[in-house]
Specification:
- The structure is a homodimer.
- Chain A has about 675 residues and is an alpha/beta fold.
- Chain A folds into 3 domains: about 300 residues, Rossmann fold (3-Layer(aba) Sandwich), CATH 3.40.50; about 160 residues, Rossmann fold (3-Layer(aba) Sandwich), CATH 3.40.50.970; about 160 residues, Rossmann fold (3-Layer(aba) Sandwich), CATH 3.40.50.
- In chain A, the strands form 4 sheets. Chain A has a 7-stranded mixed β-sheet, with helices on both faces. In chain A, strands 9-8-10-11-13-12 form a 6-stranded parallel β-sheet, sandwiched between helices. In chain A, strands 2-3-4-6-5 form a 5-stranded parallel β-sheet, sandwiched between helices.
- The first copy, chain A, starts with a strand and ends with a strand.
- At the A-B interface, α5, α6, α8, α13 and α14 of A face α5, α6, α8, α13 and α14 of B.
Chain lengths: ~675, ~675
């Protein structure tokens, strides 16, 4: 069982137990911590450490320091978090303040619920964040707009401290200071820990206050868990009407639960950054928080809180999951032992990129760049110019877009670099659109000399990095799904990578399902099972090449199918499917062609939810294949259903009328 | 006539006239200024101001302060310019030092010559730059690589001062300081002027030295034209072996020619930033430089220099050129007078984006962001959240890539923003690959809710911005060619924009030439003239929609052509052509399809040179069309020539063997 603080208890304890707003806020913060833990346990993931370090500040701001943030009332203040990771804290608070429906407490990271990172579709969320470093620029835009409209109201932006490694922060500080946008206040949640390790170990920021001052800001420093100190800083700031203000708030990551607070003794890695805790840790955390609340209530002469129980969420784990990124990292390390020219660069996503062992074994050839993707990619360019083979790591969503111009600039130097982009595609669906990389093929696909490939299994992951290191004379972009999955298929024993050419995973004569990567090839396999049950032979074809299509292979391998469905774990506009379809046209293949992929911003939700929502689950593929196959050739009499709700894509058949079905 | 300093005179005057290295360097710098002016006059464009402000520093570094930069000798130093705009100065010097062939003096910005911005294909050029802000990161990578290899040697990077507005600069300063990479020295060419105006007017940087110090750097400040002062700073730096060093060099933009030095009295705009000077200014500039050299030579007891003459380059100007960006800016201003929600954002490219008049008339709604594209785009996001309609401007190469994640983040907020991207496509070919935007359709084409369009004439430019403001409910990306061109076609009088649908500019029954924008539609028209002379009817079809293809229109409008050639002023991998070809497959149209577009890094050269080089001039289109048309249906007996050298693209016909012709 897990448990949460129900609304009536929040009303009693967090909003009425004391006349002192500071005592109330302290109580409310701990109640919100209990509910944040509950939300993250329900969701299966979420950022505890960052939520807890900013919790006291956020509660104080919304209950005391600011004028009804985001209410739209005259003179109302605006608050948002630039780091975005602390969304669960803000959600818990907004629910406690009855600004969000209480039922949403049970819907973190679920379709139609509360997204993993902030989204303005949620009431009282002022900006979409989670892509780091954008918040102060957004505040600048809001402030300029307010002034143009003659409106007032402070704009308070919470940033992380690791986030300050992003160059955009420093781009944005100067214009705010130059234009004396005094309505803007930045709070740095200075908890000294980022994703992988201590900020000082990743990329030390030195004296943050001095830096802000050098950029023209008024700076204060205070204990971010001392509400009296925070109150005084805001009172002080209110007297300064001619310049922007920054509060460097010294906080503790995971504050509020003793064993989640900061690094454990002798440890280098913080263990409560992004995932759900174990049930044991969860229970211990709630017990500690409840005990502190109850002790306070006792001094106030009030009764202990009553938590409401909820069942422990049922999550099915894969049985023999393939972990592509782990296999990749292992193969890379094996090669690096033999090749001293290999260097590894990372942007604070060590474990998610499979390179922990590399760092451990070859520290001299491991370069931690922090949250500074542009710097990392250009640094790799400099290393390549000096004769090394850099292998650059980050999430696909950040690497392909934040450093987009930099990957291109490196490409113009015609040196060999490998870009390893993880967390690619629609799932995991929980973090939301800032982290779901569904347009990176498009973003990097036209970079000259850069070949993109997505493996569909651990074995192909090993083949891919070995091909990139040993065979490809140009640069490579390796795209990896991070979700561990049971795979229904295996590659032929004789399989070897050949640029632009795919491989049949499953034979079938009526329709070809063509795609890449474990998520959609797995769903295609399951769809083929269902189609087979209906007497339709669906081939499943793995084409790992994302921007290189061998037209001879297309003609030979696909030319014999009467119907072809392309599958993109990516936007359908400019993914692999459009290249396959174009190759069919250019090679004169005549087939009914339908392309599945995303046509809108990726939704946040459980993996199953978002795959169904975007028409990329097995039933959607079945529907698409049925709509694509010519009924006269099918073995059983059956109608040709139009693509259903989930069947996202673009199709047309022969010279008949255009049929398009696109859902969001 | 124009003139240059020939090699023998350089040897006599610049390298031997005095035993004092400072006197020699001062003389050499002025000789190089004369030759820089010559190169820029030959090329028709180039950055005088930035070349002249850094000239004295560059000459001193390469002749005295550094160990044979980039020679590869043991202990050799490395030098490169991060801003890259001052490439002509470095070229003039490398030619004078006989490190580059003297004949290259006549080949600035020409195919196979000296690129407009640095490229490592040129001897002694250490890094590709011109995309601002990347240099210190590259130096970091080089330094780490050197240390790994046990090599020594300083790495000296020249940056602009406007360039410091780029956030990546601040991303890169911290790790260099944290790792005490003392081999790195940054020189800030602090000439106080950037593209549009004074740095202090665009986005004031405040106390640059304080900022570098706050990031952990050792800083000196000196007159960048005083070689003795520069000498002393480098001697001082040599004593500091435990930290990176920065020299803030106070310089004068255009230094060396009195009327090119800094802003003219009362002027806001610097007039010698990027273009070639008038012949009158050129002659006056050379006269002044030669007079100063001769006066020095006289004091040294030596004869005056003898310049070598060269003919004034013959350049044909268009007769009645269409200026799309100007028309765009005018139409935007007209609408803005009626709509107070329109705000304009700029990143230091005012005149190139057609918004000078807007700034002049509506200054309160004009936001100058400086060279900070990420900040600009996120600021626009904040403004859109606050109810405004932001129109965001920069070159396509920077806007679509530097701010790629930011455009996406804004898109996830589902507010309406217009992105105006100028200098799109392969031409002008002179600035080189950092400025030639040939992958922006790919980079932004999959952003949800963002519709991209490229107008082909002034009239369509006006229609496009009016459509984006008044009709499109989502966000728009407007892509503009900046080259003024005579257009052989005109749009039908009744023409109106319809999403995803094109318009026939010229009828013809044998082959359809489908594309967008003035460059390739103009060339298609000229190709159609030539094809008509051969008895082949080529239709020219304007499809301005870059990421929206109406499949019904494709079937109806293109379905009747036996052959279709798509034309991309962009990479062929993921441009409009692949979407058209895919639409043909999806609608069941059977035609011979060939797609032209770039298949490699865009070459630097004159517009005619690069269009021919990449197979996008009229003769290449003729060859492509001929290779695509079925000879049995053609009116005259003729072979089907394979695509020639220029014919870049991918073609195949029917079920025959795959034919691909790709040239770089």
């Amino acid at each position: 069982m897990i448990s949460y603080v129900p609304l009536d208890e929040i009303q009693r304890v967090g909003r009425a137990a004391s006349a002192d707003p500071i005592v109330r806020a302290e109580l409310l913060a701990d109640l919100c911590r209990i509910n944040t833990l509950y939300m993250i346990m329900q969701a299966g993931s979420g950022h505890i450490g960052s939520s807890f370090s900013s919790m006291d500040l956020v509660v104080w701001l919304w209950t005391a320091a600011l004028v009804d943030p985001n209410s739209g009332a005259p003179g109302a203040d605006t608050y948002f978090s630039s780091k975005g990771h602390d969304a669960p804290a803000l959600y818990a608070l907004l629910i406690a303040l009855e600004k969000l429906d209480f039922a949403l407490l049970h819907r973190l990271r679920r379709l139609g619920g509360l997204p993993g990172h902030p989204d303005v579709e949620t009431p009282f969320i002022a900006a979409n964040t989670g892509s780091l470093g954008m918040g102060i620029s957004k505040a600048y835009g809001m402030a300029r707009a307010q002034r143009l409209a003659g409106r007032t109201g402070r704009i308070v932006v919470m940033t992380g401290d690791g986030e300050l490694q992003e160059g955009q922060i420093w781009e944005s500080l100067q214009p705010v200071a130059n234009e004396r946008l005094s309505e803007i206040t930045v709070i740095v949640d200075h908890n000294k820990l980022q994703s992988d390790a201590a900020v000082s170990a990743v990329s030390d920021l030195g004296a943050i206050a001095d830096k802000f001052r050098a950029f023209g800001w008024e700076v204060r420093r205070a204990d971010g868990h001392d509400l009296r100190a925070i109150r005084d800083v805001f009172a002080d700031f209110a007297t300064l009407a001619d310049r922007p203000k920054a509060l460097i708030a010294d906080t503790i990551k995971g504050k509020g639960v003793s064993f989640m607070e900061g690094l454990a003794h002798g440890d280098q890695t913080y263990h409560f950054h992004a995932g759900a805790p174990s049930l044991k840790d969860y229970v211990a955390g709630v017990d500690e928080l409840a005990a502190r609340v109850n002790a306070r209530l006792k001094t106030l002469g009030q009764g202990a809180i009553a938590l409401a129980p909820a069942p422990f969420p049922d999550r099915t784990a894969p049985v023999r999951p393939e972990r592509l990124v782990v296999a990749y990292g292992d193969e890379l390390l094996q090669m690096a032992r033999q090749r001293p020219d290999i260097v590894v660069l990372d942007a604070d996503l060590l474990s998610d990129c499979g390179i922990e062992a590399f760092k451990e074994e070859l520290p001299a050839r491991f370069v931690e760049c922090g949250i500074a993707e542009q710097h990392m990619v250009s640094a790799a360019g400099g290393m390549a110019l000096a004769g090394l083979l850099p292998v650059v790591h980050s999430y696909a969503c950040f690497l392909s877009t934040r450093a987009n111009e930099h990957i291109y600039n490196n490409a113009t130097e015609r040196r060999k670099i490998i870009y390893t982009a993880t967390l690619a595609g629609l799932v995991p669906g929980g973090p939301g659109h800032s982290h779901q990389s569904v347009r990176d093929i498009s973003a990097i696909g036209s970079i000259p000399g850069l070949t993109a490939i997505e493996p569909c299994s651990e074995r192909e992951a090993r083949l891919a990095i070995r091909w990139a290191v040993e065979q490809n004379t140009g640069s490579s972009y390796l795209r990896f799904v991070n979700v561990p999955l049971d795979l229904p298929y295996s590659l032929p024993a004789s399989y070897a990578l050949e640029v632009g050419r795919g491989v049949m995973l499953r034979a079938g004569g009526d329709v070809a399902l063509v795609g890449y990567g474990p998520v959609l090839l797995g769903n295609a396999w399951r769809a083929a099972d269902e189609l087979a049950a209906q007497g339709i032979g669906a081939a499943v074809i793995n084409l790992p090449w994302l921007n290189r299509i061998d037209e001879a292979w297309v003609r030979d391998a696909l030319g014999r199918f009467p119907a072809i469905v392309t599958l993109d774990n990516h936007s359908v506009t400019l993914g692999q499917g459009v290249m396959v379809a174009a190759a069919l046209a250019r090679t004169g293949v005549r087939a009914d062609v339908l392309s599945l992929g995303l046509t809108d911003t990726p939704a946040c939700g459980s993996n199953a939810e978002v795959l169904a929502h975007h028409g990329l689950d097995a039933p959607s593929i079945v529907r698409a294949a049925l709509s694509c196959c010519d009924p006269s050739t099918l073995p059983r009499a059956q109608g040709r259903p139009e693509p259903g709700r989930g069947a996202t894509g673009s199709r047309s058949t022969g010279a008949g009328p255009k049929v398009e079905a696109r859902t969001r």
